[in-house]
Design goal:
Radius of gyration: 22 Å
Number of helices: 1
CATH class of the largest domain: Mainly Beta
Strand order of the largest sheet: 4-3-2-1-8-7-6-5
Number of domains: 2
């Protein structure tokens, strides 16, 4: 074997080792959420009447569960008829995902469901929420959801719809 072939082989191995180290370092950058903290932020949904779609949740005392995870959305069916200057993200436009598990790595991905009914028509939302805590006080992620509307006529479904979110501890 000549010297150039040996040097080329060493370069390939060195590059692979550096790439693995960078991947491990990136994984290590994830943080655990601050225990007992309350987070608030917004999704990437378009503003409505100047209001951004909110995201709120708490963190359990052991830091392993996000509690009362709620985000603002008009669903993948949409909505209309908003009053100027009035925050439309109230009532049924706040989707309650509930509790989400957070592993020690600070990276999470959990499934949830929510439903409500008005005057005989119901909406069921299933979602997957993923995220990463970059610090104990900051998180970003993605909410992917599907919806089914039933009652009052034929059932219809939509999705998946996807929004990103970011939140900080208050």
């Amino acid at each position: 074997m000549n010297r150039n072939a040996v040097r080329g082989g060493i370069a390939v191995v060195a590059t692979a080792v550096i790439a693995c180290m960078l991947l491990l370092a990136a994984a290590a950058l994830a943080a655990k959420p601050k225990k007992g903290a309350h987070f608030a932020g917004h999704t990437s949904a378009t503003k409505v009447e100047g209001f951004r779609a909110p995201v709120t949740f708490g963190v359990s005392s052991n830091g392993r569960t996000l509690t009362n995870f709620t985000f603002g959305s008009f669903g993948c069916f949409g909505a209309g008829g908003f009053r100027p200057g009035v925050n439309p993200y109230t009532g049924n436009s706040l989707i309650k995902a509930g509790k989400l598990k957070v592993p020690a790595s600070g990276h999470f991905s959990d499934k949830a469901s929510s439903s409500y009914s008005i005057a005989g028509t119901g909406t069921s939302t299933t979602m997957t929420i993923t995220g990463t805590f970059s610090t104990p006080m900051r998180v970003s992620g993605t909410i992917t959801f599907r919806q089914i509307v039933f009652g009052g006529g034929p059932a219809s479904s939509c999705g998946p719809a996807k929004v990103s979110f970011s939140a900080t501890a208050k």
